[in-house]
Amino acid sequence: MEKRKKGYIRNDKAPSYDKQEIIFGTRAIIEAIRAGKEIEKLLIQKGLKNELISELVSIASSHKIPFTKVPIEKLNRITRKNHQGAICFLSAITYASLDNIINACFEKGKSPFIILLDRITDVRNLGAIARSAECAGVDALVVPDKGNAQITSDAMKTSAGALNFLPVCREHNLKSTIQYLKDSGVHVLACTEKTDQLIYASDLNQPVAILLGSEENGISPEYLKLASACAKIPLHGNIASLNVSVAAGIAIFETVRQRGQII
């Protein structure tokens, strides 16, 4: 069903995009960014060069909005309207500043409790992790601006509304984010099977960020090397892996257990 406002459309006929609201047209997207709209993702036609596209790329870069160059066919599959080579997806939430959250925690005398996600592409897992995190009093969920599931209405539904309350930070470079957390005194614990250390023997009663990776490939090797420590959840069955949202729930509530009444 289309909205009457020019340049806006509710994408009900493309289920792969989860009925997200999109904005199409170069000038309409530029004005949306200037108006402070939260942009989840921006697609720009590959090879297209004109003054407005250059202006769009410039303003998107200055606002740290992730954009991808794609073939025109991909844009045409999203909408048949005159998109002028540019389509953006509006975010279902307003992203928070990780720096502000860390500083606010320390100012309140509270140990920060952060969850970092590396390439969690299933929107249902993202929503389930957010639900556990919010219930546990996690201070923020950190996601990369590319390679992760988008925060859509489906993610909001799976999170049972938790994403309305849990601050989410979108970071361009997860490597520099991990280093920033460590420099800020936050212990970054990578939850991985590539270690002998059990999570139950890890010290989580301190400023901590738990890093979780994709079910297919786990945590990126460069992030594993950069983490303060690694820990695994012991498994005794024939299947040597857990769903990432289940693993997240175990790690999150082990932190709650160790912290007792601190959270």
From TrEMBL:
One Pfam family per UniProt: SpoU_sub_bind
Gene3D superfamilies: 3.30.1330.30, 3.40.1280.10
Annotated ranges, domain RNA 2-O ribose methyltransferase substrate binding: 22-96
Sorted UniProt keywords: Methyltransferase, Transferase
Name of this chain's protein: 23S rRNA (Guanosine(2251)-2'-O)-methyltransferase RlmB
Organism field: Splendidivirga corallicola
